[in-house]
Amino acid sequence: MSFGPKHPDVYSRHQKLRQIFMENPDAERIFHAIGDVVGEHRAAVDAGSEMEARAVAILGNSGTGKTKSTIHGLERLGLKDTVVGDNPRSFLVIKLKAKASLRGLCAGALTAYGWPVNKRDSAEEIWTEVDGYIRKLQTSVLVFDEIQHVRSAGAVDRADLRDFLKSLVQPGQSIVIPIVVGTPDFLEVLNSDDQLFRRCRQVHTRTLETAIDLEVVARTLNQYAKAANIQLTKSVKNREFAARLLHVSKYAFGTMCEYCCAGIKQAMLEDSTELKIQHFEDTYRRNIDCVPALNPFVAADFQNIQIGEKTDFR
């Protein structure tokens, strides 16, 4: 078995698999929530009337596919995912860092537009520049990813960030729709301000359950296998395997999709035309470096194995 440079096509095929969007109920709810807010925004602009400012909060556990579903929903609405140099830029994604601050958020937005940040500029000065680009490049949506980091900021930064988000949904002042994406920890901040709470439409993604979602796992794996032109063996076409895959995924839909792609990648690296449970066993062992007794694809009592926070199946 040989990997690396001898299999360059495998890595490109794997990336193409990962780009496939798998429809799911959460993604549909996210789409409709964003669609309502964007629709009202567009109607107000067309009518020349004062916009009823609204935000959308997409909250759920890590790995549930929140960000990917948000971007997919925006694209379904005709808002294109763009890069620096494009004009217009319908929406922008700004990812908050662990040590969140208002200046850091504003700097992230300016950088996303492709403009350098002056180290001496304050948050207000930076945002003035961002505001100009919002207008020039016709940005109608700003997506703030990893919004839960606002909660872990210091008291002053947390208050500044909360007040900033609230300023984006002030009637008569809003020129852009804020969409915040993150874990349920952000609810503490959202619930701390009545006005922000009232003007923010919430969508909560769910975790999958063994009792009702095994068919979802089977259907998703089958779709990826068809896209990769690989056959499923009996070892991955049964309820026990689906339960194992769910457990490894920590019952998160987005993570489960990544694991499906990773198992298929392992099969492709081995030049196999069939997908077997051994491919998932090998992938988990290679990433975690564990004994068989701690491998959820091998162990009889896999439900009792604690899956690490930083498991990466790519």
From TrEMBL:
InterPro entries associated with the record: P-loop_NTPase, TniB
Domain of life, per lineage: Bacteria
Protein name: TniB protein
